[in-house]
Amino acid sequence: MDPALTAMQMITRRHFFGRSAAGVGSMALASLLNPSLLGASQRLMPRAKRVIYLFQAGAPSQLELFDFKPGLDKLHGIELPASVRNGQRITGMSSGQDSLPVTRPMVRFARHGQCGAWVSNRLPYTAGIVDDIAIVKTLHTEAINHDPAMTFMATGHEHPGRPSLGAWTSYGLGSANQDLPAFVVLHSKGSAKVDAIPLASRMWGAAFLPSLHQGVQFRSSSSDPILYLNNPPGIADPTRRRMLDRIGRLNQLQYEEFGDPEILTRIAQYELAYRMQSGVPELMDLSEESETTLRMYGPDAGKPGAYATNCLLARRLIERGVRFVQLFHRGWDHHEDLPANLGRQCLDTDQPSAALVQDLKQRGLLDDTLVVWAGEFGRTVYCQGELTADNYGRDHHPRCFTIWMAGGGTKPGITYGETDDFSYNIVDRPVHVHDLNATILHCLGLDHEQLTYRFQGRDYRLTDVHGNIAHELLA
After folding, report:
1. What is the pLDDT of residues 52-81, one digit of tens each?
2. What is the pTM of this model?
3. Angle, CA 121 vertex, CA 118 and CA 125 arms, to 5°
4. Is 174 left (phi over 0), alpha (psi -120 to 50) or beta?
5. Which stretch of DSSP H or E encloses residue 459?
6. Superfamily covering domain 45-222+297-473
7. By Cβ atoms counted within 10 A, which residue in 28, 124, 162, 234 is the most buried?
8. CA 63, CA 88: separation in Å to the nearest integer?
């Protein structure tokens, strides 16, 4: 074949695909600039319009917080029975110990609320909202180390490369406010004297979804909460507008040439950043919040980067139409000195978490806002390291852990599922991470089996080929 003819055919084909893609390019760009124009193809009747996910990175111990096991007082110090462990794997951090002694929690439990839920004295404020939350004691996961476990909770897969739950929500529902992202991420660091687990951006990333759906991380700085959002010195707003218009035209020409949908995302991101310049400063300004509200969230409310401040910002974000807000609070990895470190973490988080639920409820927002409080796995009933009269640590335990949910169509005032006498195995109504994610999507009106994205010849979804909705958790 004539090489010149072959080259001509290739050029013609490239232009054909580029220009045919551009034929739907304007529609695709419109959907990125205004995602509400194109919703998910499969929608259910939603109870929740938005999600606030309070992620406790490092894995809080269920034994010291929610999973009351009074029989451990008599079993304290004995070797963990082989029939309980049943050959299950443990981490390398405790596998070399000569003994795995059962350890009672150094806290007190009591029943609270009309529902009579058992809650530790470490969580007095959470104890006050038990009639508004569903406590789930039987979540279980597959990963036994932090990074894959957090990635699994966030994306439904242990390995990098999958979109996060927040990105799937943005993709399925779009944005309710064109001046703010659909998915926002906030970070805080706990007071526990432990090295905080690193957080990888994949946990709020979009992976192969259009990058517009990735989480936008807000920093603790009130003057510059988003990097590079403000105009640099000497650049006035009209100048920035002219620059964006010209860059937009160049990007559109590039898209017409190559048909790469990420070019449209780039245009949409530029426009969103421009609109956020006016909306974000007002959002971060807490001066309009009443003293009563600030006191409700606790003494740290208003301090940049504090967990209490981030809980308050989460409420302000969802009030302004943000679909998914995820708080990451680090410092729960208590392999040693658990009694003291757990106490510090609870002082950081207990009052603000409860205040968020109360604040949403009194503003009429809880019914259609789903709040989730969870870590990546639980903690072992046996001691890691030396067990003393007043100190101990606990290792990672993926077989069972406790979370709670509130609002958004969940059933309030219930405790769901049961573990064995050692909080080691589930004996009634297990809830897998895939089940939790399927249930969250269901509350948002999204069918986890139908919310898919085709990538490299395969249809992907958050729950892969797994997941069952936990209908008993729904009102």
Report:
1. 999 999 999 999 999 999 999 999 999 999
2. 0.87
3. 85
4. left
5. strand 458-460
6. Alkaline Phosphatase, subunit A (3.40.720.10)
7. 162
8. 19
